[in-house]
Amino acid sequence: MWSLLLVPVRTLAAAFWTNWRLLIVLLGQAASRELQEIQSDPFRLAWNEADSCTSNMLEMTESKYKKLTVNHTRALCAYSKKTPSLYKPLNVALRQSSALYSTPAFPFHTIYFWLTSAIQILKTSCETTYRRTDLTFNGKLHQVIRFGQFASSSRNPNLDFGRQTCFQIRTCLGAFISEYSNFKHEQEVLIPPYEKFKIIKILLEMKNCFRIFVLESVGSHTKLNCKVANRNQQIRASIPLIIGFQLIIGFIWKVFSNTAI
After folding, report:
1. Cβ-contact 201, 141 below 8 angstroms
2. Does residue 42 have a cis bond before it (omega within 30 degrees)?
3. Is 32 a catalytic residue?
4. Domain 8-259 has CATH 3.90.650.10
5. 41, 106, 138, 200: which sits with the fewest CB atoms below 10 Å from its CB?
6. What is the pLDDT of residues 135-160, one digit of tens each?
7. Set 188, 195, 211, 220: catalytic member
8. What is the pLDDT of residue 38?
9. Residue 125 DSSP symbol
10. Quick check: is 179 catalytic?
11. pTM for this prediction
12. What are the pLDDT digits (tens) for 234-252?
């Protein structure tokens, strides 16, 4: 989950990242699209395999995180499983398919919604986390960047997922999800694709890493020109839409799970 390349921030006009409040609109008006996503691999496989994890996590954390729904918990469990892999195709799509995001061709609207929504609920305050990779990133001092995907980081600086490029990250939008992860020892803090960071320091040829980028959170991309009924209007989500979307997904999933072979 760590070995993915950091990508530069694009201009606001080119960025499609949104917070979960805006995304609700996109999802709530596309029930047929969600049905297709639920039935497709790898979403269906990962979603089904997360059953036991979801039940266990709900029992363990019910009193602590009352705002998390079953689908929030299932999404976190499905994302953190290595087999079947959901995080790999999801993050590849997020990095490479931004132009398709507001169209039915993008296959992961549902899981993106539940993950970003869960992160919004679970995040508390800013904290320092760490990320390692064997890939090379040639960022420049004072450059503003984002990961462009769901980026796993850890409170533990000594997890060895690579020594080519390392990051010391001050995140203010990421959330500690270790209690919902299949790998609790990793002390994972999940950073959303839309959080922006400024490179405030670059350390070279350190003992345990060839290059260390020190990142400071500088906010997020939260605007999206929603291309649903009216492609030129920006639509804002409301509480009824949130409730309506949850009911739609719950109903679709119940029907599909009862009829699947």
Report:
1. yes
2. yes
3. no
4. no
5. 138
6. 888 889 999 998 888 999 999 988 87
7. 188
8. 62
9. S
10. no
11. 0.72
12. 323 434 444 455 444 444 4
